Amino acid sequence: MSVLYSIFLGIVQGITEFLPVSSSGHLAILKNLLGIQMDNGLLFDVLLHLGTVIAIICVFRKDIWRMIRETVHMIADIVYNIKTRIHNQKEQDAKRYRKVVHNNYRKFVVLILVSTVPTAVIGYTARELVSIAEQTLIVPGICLILTAIFLIVADVTEPGKKIPRDVSYTSGFMIGVAQGLSTLPGLSRSGMTIASCLMCGFERRFAVKYSFIMSIPAILGAAVLEIHESIGTNLAFTQVLIYLLGAAAAGIAGYICIKKMLVIVRKKKFKGFAVYCLVLGIISITGYFLQR
């Protein structure tokens, strides 16, 4: 892969990751149309996603830092409660336990963990299927049409007011399932998860924040797995640098688009993206049959 192709695909990734139009679908279509062949295509995709993770961390750095602090405090409270239980059983005492989840940020952390479980299971078991699906135009095409349907549903959904303390763990699990399914090329991760959040009654700004922050553990997990499996392969050092340039481009483009997405969701303007996904999906399916 050339430097220009890498940067171009990185920019496409950064834009489409945060706008509800499916980054994986666009990358799969472009790779097919441009005839880009890569022995480590999944590694390249993961590095592009790492670039977008950095963009998420930059935009939501205050929330993420608070969540990290609360996670440490929750672990300390859990350890304290374990010691208290041992003490009470041993001394026949009634020493009080600490409440572990007692504020919005702690609930946010637990919800993200709940969402991550189905995402990890689906993402890991469907890895081979995703690799195969990216090599054809028909799967991204069908999935883009499904994304369009989800966006239309989200557009007509009444606005909710739920913040972390109001969200059930069942909702967190179902949103995680939506994120896991979005590993298929053409199913927009941001579109699927934001739409799912809105259908669960999330406040609009929180829906965007939840969608983007919940992607961090999923992407980091996939990155660790893929990079580990790539160790020992004959990937040239120059090719790694080219991939990293693409990741940098994805991060810069992604940072700009996160800001844009906050405005889009607040103003409830999904119909244009739904039409775009529908048209692109039809074009992709048509292209598949023309190639045969």
Classify the secondary structure makeup into a structural class. Answer: mainly alpha
Query: What's the count of strands?
Result: 0
Largest sheet: none
Q: Could you name the ranges where pLDDT drops below 50 across 5 or more consecutive residues?
A: none
Q: Mean pLDDT, as a whole number? A: 84
**Which strand-content bin applies to the residues?**
under 5%
Shape: globular
N-to-C span: 25 Å
Report the order of strands and helices: HHHHHHHHHHHHH
Report the helical percentage: over 70%
Q: What is the gyration radius calculated from CA atoms? A: 21 Å
Structural notes for this entry:
By secondary structure, the chain is mainly α. The chain has helices at 3-18, 23-34, 41-59, 61-91, 104-125, 127-133, 138-156, 169-181, 189-199, 204-213, 215-230, 237-267, 271-291.
